[in-house]
């Protein structure tokens, strides 16, 4: 899917999140408890510096800009924020040894990423001005 250059950094991170989501689902379905624990610890350790940062970047840029618009997708943005919060809680639980959440985490991350890429980003590209999209890029490209 062609993506505006200003959203490219976030889309590249989405590619990585889909890979992680698929890995989490596959590992959970394997039933290999050792592999599940290893991946759960990896997700919990990586989450603050990579995924929570990504979520925060989206929240302070695209979500905030779309929320400020009367014609913005308010319900979708609210749902995406809720999903961010749920994944934050899941990552913490995974770090505490909650491997039972691994498949659910992967499924939510996959579905969430697809929603942003397939629906939210095209809306943002239509509703946000070039200057707003440039601002998204400036705030997310090197973080």
Protein described:
The mean pLDDT is 94. This protein has a single domain (5-140), classed as nmb1532 protein domain like (Four Helix Bundle (Hemerythrin (Met), subunit A), Up-down Bundle). It is mostly helical. The chain has helices at 8-30, 33-67, 74-95, 102-127, 130-140. α1 (8-30) runs antiparallel to α4, α2 packs antiparallel against α3 and α3 (74-95) packs antiparallel against α4. The radius of gyration is 16 Å and the shape is elongated. The chain is built from five helices and no strands. The two termini are 24 Å apart.
CATH-level-4 superfamily name: nmb1532 protein domain like
Main sheet specs: none
Question: Whole-number average pLDDT?
Answer: 94
% residues in beta strands:
under 5%
Written as H for each helix and E for each strand, in order along the chain, the element string is: HHHHH
For this structure, the CATH topology is Four Helix Bundle (Hemerythrin (Met), subunit A)
Bin the helical content: over 70%
Please tell me how large the radius of gyration is.
Answer: 16 Å
Number of strands: 0
Outline type: elongated
Reported CATH architecture: Up-down Bundle
Name the structural class: mainly alpha
DSSP summary: helix tally? 5
Distance between the termini: 24 Å
User: Class, according to the CATH hierarchy?
Assistant: Mainly Alpha
Task: Tell me the domain tally.
Answer: 1
- Low-confidence segments, ≥5 residues, pLDDT <50? none
């Amino acid at each position: 899917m062609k993506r505006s250059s200003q959203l490219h950094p976030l889309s590249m991170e989405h590619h990585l999140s889909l890979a992680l989501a698929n890995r989490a689902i596959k590992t959970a379905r394997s039933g290999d408890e050792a592999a599940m624990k290893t991946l759960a610890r990896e997700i919990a350790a990586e989450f603050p510096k990579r995924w929570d940062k990504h979520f925060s970047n989206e929240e302070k840029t695209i979500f905030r800009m779309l929320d400020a618009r009367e014609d913005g997708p308010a319900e979708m943005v609210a749902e995406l924020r809720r999903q961010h919060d749920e994944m934050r809680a899941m990552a913490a639980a995974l770090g505490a040894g909650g491997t039972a959440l691994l498949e659910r985490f992967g499924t939510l991350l996959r579905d969430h990423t697809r929603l942003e890429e397939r629906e939210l980003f095209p809306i943002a590209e239509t509703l946000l001005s070039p200057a707003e999209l440039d601002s998204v890029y400036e705030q997310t490209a090197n973080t």
